[in-house]
């Protein structure tokens, strides 16, 4: 009987521990305020403070500035990104097979940019205008963004051309 009670007690403890871990790791976000910098934990892991993130980005060569939001009384870290407009290029005479191969290589290139952390978002426009799509590069310099964008097989083939502009956005804010 003692063995059965001991086994039941162990199962109860293990079950409660698993339930607690599941609750903590689903999507629970805890936010605490320290001065005007937020420290978040997600799934039990602390996220860098805005001050620490700004220092890290600055060290890597990124341009940043702080923006104070009067409405929320929060300090928001703004980061410079580079938005590349992919425009119709001068050489669009490829046959259907060549165009399909270029499109496959183009998508692979954009996928690599995302996987390697150089691009945060890419996508085509829904019309058939001169501007075919965009990519937002998360890199410290215009020269780097230009180099990565011009490495695209569609650009190399002349089917697309690139126009890049610096673009500012709040660091870490989700796209809605």
Characterize the overall form: elongated
Strand content: 25-35%
List the uncertain runs.
3-39
- Specify the biggest β-sheet: 5 strands, antiparallel
Which H/E pattern describes the elements?
A: HEEEHEEHEEHHE
Total strand segments: 8
Rg, rounded, reads: 24 Å
- Helical fraction equals 25-40%
The structural class is alpha+beta
Determine the mean pLDDT.
81
CA distance, first residue to last residue = 58 Å
How many separate helices? 5
Describe the structure.
The structure is a single chain. With 176 residues, this protein is an alpha+beta fold. Helix content is 38%, strand content 34%. It has five helices and eight strands; from the N terminus they run αβββαββαββααβ. It has helices at residues 2-25, 50-59, 96-115, 142-150, 153-156, and strands at 29-34, 37-42, 45-46, 64-69, 74-88, 119-124, 131-137, 160-170. The strands form two sheets. Strands 4, 5, 6, 7 and 8 form a five-stranded antiparallel β-sheet that branches. The radius of gyration is 24 Å and the shape is elongated. The termini are far apart.
Sequence-ordered SSE layout with sheet pairings:
Elements: H1 2-25, E1 29-34, E2 37-42, E3 45-46, H2 50-59, E4 64-69, E5 74-88, H3 96-115, E6 119-124, E7 131-137, H4 142-150, H5 153-156, E8 160-170
Antiparallel strand pairs: 1-2, 2-3, 4-5, 5-7, 5-8, 6-7
List key phrases describing it.
38% helix, 8 strands, alpha+beta, 3-stranded antiparallel β-sheet, single chain, 176 residues, disordered N terminus, 5-stranded antiparallel β-sheet, 5 helices
């Amino acid at each position: 009987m003692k063995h059965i009670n001991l086994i039941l007690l162990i199962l109860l403890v293990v079950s409660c521990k698993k339930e607690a871990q599941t609750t903590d790791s689903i999507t629970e976000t805890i936010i605490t305020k320290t001065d005007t910098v937020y420290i978040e934990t997600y799934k039990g892991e602390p996220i860098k403070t805005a001050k620490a993130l700004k220092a890290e980005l600055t060290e890597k060569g990124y341009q940043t500035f702080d923006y104070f939001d009067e409405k929320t009384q929060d300090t928001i870290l703004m980061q410079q990104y580079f938005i590349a407009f992919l425009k119709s290029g001068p050489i669009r005479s490829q046959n259907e097979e060549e165009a399909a191969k270029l499109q496959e290589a183009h998508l692979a290139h954009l996928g690599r940019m995302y996987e390697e952390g150089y691009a945060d978002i890419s996508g085509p426009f829904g019309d058939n205008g001169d501007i075919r799509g965009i990519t937002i590069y998360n890199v410290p310099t215009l020269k780097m963004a230009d180099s990565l964008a011009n490495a695209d097989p569609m650009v190399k083939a002349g089917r697309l051309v690139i126009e890049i502009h610096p673009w500012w956005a709040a660091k870490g804010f989700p796209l809605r």
